[in-house]
Fold each of these.
Amino acid sequence: MLRVTLTTARLVLHAPTEADVDAITEACQDPEIARWTTVPSPYFRQDAEDFVALVEQWWEDGSQTVWGVYADDVLVGMVGLHHIGEHPAGGHAELGYWVVADARGRGYLVEAARAVLDWGFAELGLARIRWQAVVGNVPSARAARALGFRFEGTMRQGLTSQRGRDDGWLAGLLRDDDRTPVEWPML
């Protein structure tokens, strides 16, 4: 698959490159990113180099699409569609993201993720996109709710990472869903 650049009112989204390695390395020093995502901890420059190479491979084989999120040419986060699967009735994927500490609370995540969701449904023909997070990741849940995801439940020890197993929240968004936020039990 060819890499795609997406733009919003305030942001440019494109696949991260070698030029982003230092910014990714710095961002992933944030204990909140390590706490709630599957990034290695501790996170080294080599991890960022490997990640950038992996993103290129994922775009090429069409298995995942990952964008760096840039505000005024500064990396403020990462967003992607992961584990893309095809099906005759429409494909599926998982939305994943993180935002650097200095950029939180500015609405960048929802703005960027909305562009990615629109692209996934329109260009990849996805029928369903899921969101999941470690139980307790309320900021991620707030963003998913704002994007229109519907909370579907809690998976006991359903998420794995280098930490081991964690309980996980699960939500879904269908191509034709009204994206107006609805009530979530933990919010």
Note: The two ends are 37 Å apart (CA to CA).
Amino acid sequence: MLSEKILAARFAEVVLPHLGDALSLARWLTGNTADAEDVVQEACLKAHAGIAGFSGGNARAWLLTIVRNASYTWMARNRPRAVVSVGDLADLDDVSPVPDDDADSPEAALIAKANTAAVEAAIAGLPEAFRETVVLRDINGLSYREIATMLGVPQGTVMSRLARARGLLMTELGGRHHEPA
């Protein structure tokens, strides 16, 4: 049996570096920060309890799997099935394109805000399986294999869901793009 000190050090090494990603995923799945914080706290308790069983590999994917499961367990206990929404798009800042020189203008800020709202609404409108796959791949950057393992589906299913989700997003957002002047 590992000592409590060794388990605490292992928890700090395996879990703590990925808490930001854990909160981001929980926010996308629960729809708000307060609920996401509750879920991440519950997930951290589960991760701490199971840290001795972590056999190495991708610590981030391991933690996000726990967070995903904790999110759905929490929502099943605390929300009617029909009420599941998506969080804000602050998490997309890391994957946004590099801004132009005019990015500090009020016009650019307004366009960015409108684009963010449009993307948020489009993602929120996706069926749950597609939304989850897009968030795990495009926002959290997990590999197809990691997502397949998390969701318990074949890798081809992940690729198919991602392609369909992106197609739905392009269709939804396609009419919102304007040609440059």
Note: The chain is about 65% helix and 0% strand.
